[in-house]
Amino acid sequence: MDLYDELPDSNLLYDVEFSSLLEAARVFQVTVLEFLKLSAQELARTLQRSVVEVSKFQNLLQKDLDEQYGVLNNVNQLRECAIPHPITTGDISIDEALGGGIFTKCITEVFGESSTGKSQFLMQLSLAVQMPKDCGGAEAKCVYITTEGDLPTQRIQDMIESREEFKKSSISQSNIYTVSCNDLVTQEHILNVQLPILLEQSKGAIKLVIIDSISHHMRVELESNSFKESQDNRYYVSRLAEALLKLANKYNLAVVVANQVGDKPFIELTEPQRYLLSDYEYQLGWIVGWKDSTILFRQRAYEELKASSPGIIPSQKKSFLDILSDDEDHMLIEKEVSRVLNGENSSVTRQASKSTSSLSIRNESSSVTDLGKERKYISSKRKRKLDHRVPNLGLSWANYVSTRILLKKSYKAAPVIRRGELRVYGNIDPASFWQVKRIFKIVYSTYCRPEEISYSITKKGIESV
Amino acid sequence: MSLGISLSQLITDNPQPLSSGVSALDDALNKGFHSRSIYEIYGPPGVGKTKMGIQLVQNATTGNSERKVLWIETHVSAPLNLMDFDKGNIFTVTTNKFTQLLIFFKKLLEKDEKYDLILISGFSQLVTDHIEILLNRGYNFKNIHELKCKHLALILTEMTKYTHSKNASIVLLNDCMNTSFQKDIGNVEDNLEVVDDGSNFLVSSSFNSHRRKNTQVLRSSLVANSAMGNKDNIWEAFIRCSIGIFWNWKHKDIGNNRKRNFEKCRIAVVSDLNGKEMQNKKRATYKNEVDCSIVRFDIDESSGSFKDIKADLNNINFDDRIMPPQKKNKSGSSVSISPSLTDSSRQVSPEELLLDTSLVGSAIDAYNKTVYEKEPELEAIIYDSEG
């Protein structure tokens, strides 16, 4: 029976007088709600216990519940102090886009592939929260829970020293409580036991809890091979989110978590398939922050199938590929490289073909299908690659996330290519063709509108450009 | 016919329905959110459920100092900082448990506090938690769907009592979940029709069960949780309209031209669960055949709130993706809208139907056990073919 879940502090749990009644309730699968709603006679019949006993229990149960919820259920006039408020991220443009910063009383998720700067951003937050209130900070401490190794303290120290405002406000690592957990059991213990105790003892001095990353252990350790298991996992995820939100609400603090990505590859189907509006696949791209062209392409790809004559895969049809944007950077580079190579002897050509093949790997811009297999240097049109990464833990997690941020890394043509100066340098080292381009994308948020900001990772941390 | 309305209440004048701010949505709801009604809004994260809730609060309180609003928070706090209007008449309370909410509504009724609008953000999370707790305590998985329906009917009964006695509207803001569970498989009542001649015979109707393989559908978390089944109509009877909000492209010719204009908008799918708004002849319980209205809206750049889309009529993205391409016509046989997909639809064999008919009796029994407090009118709602 669910008595413990409803009334964890009740004496009824241990009362010997009712132990056989509770046992009967367990056997006959009667829940607390039935005790509240059904008449004593009816219950007594179901449970095969005496009416007197049942009605006595009902009265006590009702009394306990009223007591437990008596104060909690009082309606409050809106109080300003209990309203979620933003904490600065340490970057003005990012703060602005987020509606003021990272909000308290809710979960903010930062996801992206590795080396996109998730941890950099989180470390920066752990320092920015210490800033004085008139600078947008919370003058507060922070908890930093890592799941993949220890917190890189040297990097944090560098961040502090590279920023005047951090040094001035005497921000230090001593205000960051850090702990690392190596498996799911430890993680559970930290989140369910140690963290609540620490927050209780610190009496509101902590305003930020960071977990880097939330899905690391869960992805490895939780299996889902059946409906039951996947439902269990959904429940595990929502219980975790609810525990975090409970702390966030109780202490008016912000919870920021990193999330890893999983793969959702585009699969060529052979049967036509038409998605409906409410289909998960149709809506997914908007929930996980894919590019518009990717969303449309993946929504329509299987519909095209029926329209095309047999044997032709629609994603190779030229008109359909127009949905995707051209990879202008890649085409520019190819053009430049071929210009350099023209007129030079064949030994260099061999070297160049080697360099262009490594090019396509670097740029992750190979077209959707093997369109480019027999491609000539200049004539072919390259398409940017389809997005295929999705944040872990699915909808059951996403439903609890108030702000979802995607950190993205891509490559664009280096200045030397864009200015057409490759010939001048005569350098055909592919590494010099490309330049990293980073995007901070707000996928959705309760507090602000979706937006994209370019950023770079510097000594100071994350800076918008 | 409506739930538990006494004659005296019918005489009292009804307040104006509450406008959502999107006139097309108001039209679909027959002028707006009505008093004495419960509504459900659900959708994927980020689509704007909370924003819609805030807009309702704003519309309810501005220009009317009499109206009081109660926002019931659950796990996720309400973003009350986003309400940049007079908050004098807005009240909040936090409930984290299904039972707590039930007790809250009981007490609220006793206390005689009047709120014109009550929003419950994250209601479905409380329901999902409640189910999971029961399952973890060894509740039989086979019966969990019926139990969910029972308990939901119970709490919705309390809410209905409140909305009727105080002339209030309740709006549930729910999550959605992905599920591959298809309601039309083995759904007894849907395969059968009541012959409208006073006799209680059920006859099978010819129908095409359109099943799509490997497809996950987004549905309200009240439906798509561990306790899925085919008797959701038991509690859906209490909800006047269910509004699903989804994303879609704004323009029809997206992808066809080279302009690459990827504008998107929100689509509200208003399911008229009880056939009130559209004067449906039959109280359909089959989700896919409930009449729905489709409303397109989006954030208006100048005001920042949800507004209708004034679109170029020649370039409206006709939302033909709303319904499965199959709809019953008047004679009860199926008509496929999209001929290209008929090959994947499936005819049900007579054996299967036979199997289903044997379940009818038990389904009705189960339903009768559901409502603890006898509400004869309610039974009539679901099984009265006259509507």
From TrEMBL, chain A:
Residues 344-367 are annotated as: Disordered. Pfam families: Rad51 (PF08423). CDD domains: XRCC3. It comes from the Eukaryota. SUPFAM superfamilies: P-loop containing nucleoside triphosphate hydrolases. The keyword Membrane does not apply. The keyword Nucleotide-binding applies. It is found in: Nucleus. Residues 83-261 form the RecA family profile domain. GO terms for cellular component: Rad51C-XRCC3 complex. GO terms for molecular function: ATP binding; ATP-dependent DNA damage sensor activity; DNA strand exchange activity; double-stranded DNA binding; single-stranded DNA binding. This is RecA family profile 1 domain-containing protein. It comes from Kazachstania africana (strain ATCC 22294 / BCRC 22015 / CBS 2517 / CECT 1963 / NBRC 1671 / NRRL Y-8276). The gene is KAFR0F02570.
UniProtKB/TrEMBL annotation, chain B:
Residues 320-349 are annotated as: Disordered. It comes from the Eukaryota. Keywords: ATP-binding, DNA damage, DNA repair, Nucleotide-binding, Nucleus. Residues 331-348 have a biased composition (Polar residues). It is found in: Nucleus. GO terms for biological process: error-free postreplication DNA repair; heteroduplex formation; meiotic DNA recombinase assembly; positive regulation of single-strand break repair via homologous recombination; reciprocal meiotic recombination. Residues 14-176 form the RecA family profile domain. One of its GO terms (cellular component) is Rad51C-XRCC3 complex. InterPro entries: HR_Repair_Mediator, P-loop_NTPase, RecA_ATP-bd. This is RecA family profile 1 domain-containing protein. It comes from Kazachstania africana (strain ATCC 22294 / BCRC 22015 / CBS 2517 / CECT 1963 / NBRC 1671 / NRRL Y-8276) (Yeast).
